[in-house]
Amino acid sequence: MNPLLESKRVWLVGGPGGVGKTTLAASLGLALANQGHRTVVLTVDPAKRLAQALGFKGFQSDLQKIPTEKGELFATMLDTERYFDRIIEKFATSEDQKRKILSNPLYRTMVGNLGGSHEYAAMERLLEFVNNPSFDKIIVDTPPSDNARELFDAPQRLADFMDGSVLSWFQGGEKLYMRFFKTGTRLAMGALKLVFGSAFLDSLGTFLADLDGMQVGFRSRNLEILKVLRSPESGFLLVTVPSESRALDCAEFAATLKEREIPLTRLVLNRLEAEPPASFTPGGPLERIRAYQQTLYQQQNRWAEKTIELVGASTLSPVRIERRDSALHELSTLSELGRLLVS
Amino acid sequence: MDYLDNTLQKRVIFLTGKGGVGKTTLAWATALACHRQGKKVAVVGWNPSGKEGVPTAPSELGIPWVGLETLAAFREYALQIIRFEKIYDTVLDNRILRTFVMAAPGLADAVVAGKILDLYEKQQHDLLIVDMPSSGHALSFFRSPLGLQKIFKMGFIARDAERVCALFRSPDVRLDLVATPEELPLVECQELKDKLTPLHGFTFGYLHLNQCLPDWIRTSDAELALVPQIAKPLYERFNHRWQEEKSVSRLAERIGMTRIAHDRIATDSWKTGVEALADRLIQ
């Protein structure tokens, strides 16, 4: 195992959709656990894909122990709605406040539908594990965001919304948000009421007033998360299956990481097509099949090189993983795959 | 072809499914096929930069692309109500409102849904092909007007949320799901269909099985016997992959939608892939 990579404690596994992130996150977890580490794999996907990758049916948001040769492996799936309830329970200043918020219809709709709540909860949970010294290794299978920026921006947006400074505009009997609008408060209120309706503004005001005193739970988490992700103890695995459109997705991912000063540790080129034997040039239908594989192989190769160039990963010695013939349900195969990622 | 005929009779097609199954390619190929049949068609997509998943400039295919950008859509929407740009720009265009629109429950999605409704009602295009985000976001998108109705209860937004719901259940609108012949994308389609079914009274259309290996990829035992040892794995692997695809595709039968398979086409670029798929849809 690469000693530089072995020293990492936190691994984020990210990349475009449908490239095998969840399977690779599970593999990495297994490999690290098999080396004797106490490891946890966190996935956010409501589709329970990690469970499927590990051959489990229906596991829950509680830590689930997965059998390993050595070490210990836990997997957990994030139930966003329940997770937010726990945050409220933790930070509520009184029983009354807790009850009020948890039963608020606005809150209930919000945790179910709120854009970015998965991403926010994932990052929060990551912090929770980071601050728990009993885990040696923490692996996060990132939520299937629409694009790379969502993954990092969505938690910040949510934090902004919940942040004290925004809250203060809405909180309090005097409805301070009126003061925010410099140009003609009445005009501003008229416009807001026209668009959102006064009933909504009032219920939003009530909800935010209920949150009074709780800001501390939401504020400045982003900085804490960035600190973790920037630390030399953390690694980012960018996974892709080389193709034209995904090459651009990867470039965006790399740019997003760079903007946030999060180092890209490894590029993983997954599900690579095998090269057809050059010495065999049959005729007829056999040639058509050979040529088909040749085109798939060449195209993928071309986009693999382009991806490496676009993400600036030439110095990172990309990991190349050949396409497997059957679904990965065997723990031993998964573990072998995981070792490749950190070799 | 049944798929193309049905599509030509619709006004809006929503395409969604797991990430990476080729929704964008299918959206453009369908649009191109309809365009060649003389329809005024536009592809509607989420990414504001138009970069992700649309590597070729859409103009190269001769079909307009409409990008859905939440804040721009919200501005358009708010201006319909307030009518004065100056008031919007001085009163509503500020950090608090931007944060609010982007983060408030389902508002961003509903605003974007409103934009699609607007495009539909303006009738500048005969047909809109909506290249949706993957399952999770698609689900919250379709749920968003219902959430807003609950929260806003009355006023413009509640009323317009109802109009969006009406669009979703309109017979002019069809919802297609896209998967590849693999277990996880198909399971995700099943789950998505189960969750979407009670929502609006959608017209569910086709379940696309994308990137299937062509049937000619198989090699018979007799042919395989003639292949030298070094090349055998190539053919054996294709036989195996084809077999796996067929067996996993049985999961698609349970989803209860009309299935349509698209062969994986080995091409030089995304654009030629779109054109080749469009040709096949027309044939």
What do you see in this structure?
The complex is a heterodimer of chains A (343) and B (283). By secondary structure, chain A is an alpha/beta fold. Chain A contains 16 helices and eight strands. Chain A has helices spanning 3-6, 21-34, 49-53, 80-91, 95-102, 105-113, 117-130, 148-162, 164-170, 177-180, 185-196, 198-210, 221-230, 244-259, 284-311, 331-341, and strands at residues 10-14, 38-43, 64-66, 72-77, 137-141, 234-240, 266-272, 319-322. Chain A is globular, with a radius of gyration of 24 Å. Helix content of chain B is 56%, strand content 14%. Chain B contains 13 helices and seven strands. Chain B has a seven-stranded parallel β-sheet, with helices on both faces. The radius of gyration of chain B is 21 Å and the shape is elongated. Chain B starts with a helix and ends with a helix. The chains are: A alpha/beta (343), B alpha/beta (283). Chains A and B meet through helix 6, helix 8, helix 11, helix 12 and helix 14 of A and helix 3, helix 4, helix 5, helix 7 and helix 8 of B.
Helices and strands, with pairings:
The complex is a heterodimer of chains A (343) and B (283).
Chain A lengths: L2 H4 L3 E5 L6 H14 L3 E6 L5 H5 L10 E3 L5 E6 L2 H12 L3 H8 L2 H9 L3 H14 L6 E5 L6 H15 L1 H7 L6 H4 L4 H12 L1 H13 L10 H10 L3 E7 L3 H16 L6 E7 L11 H28 L7 E4 L8 H11 L2
Chain B lengths: L1 H7 L3 E6 L5 H14 L4 E5 L19 E3 L2 H13 L2 H8 L2 H9 L3 H16 L4 E5 L3 H18 L3 H14 L3 E7 L3 H18 L3 E9 L8 H5 L6 H17 L1 H6 L2 E6 L6 H13 L1
Parallel strand pairs in B: 1-4, 1-5, 2-3, 2-4, 5-6, 6-7
Helix pairs in contact in B: 2-13, 3-6, 6-7, 6-8, 7-8, 7-9
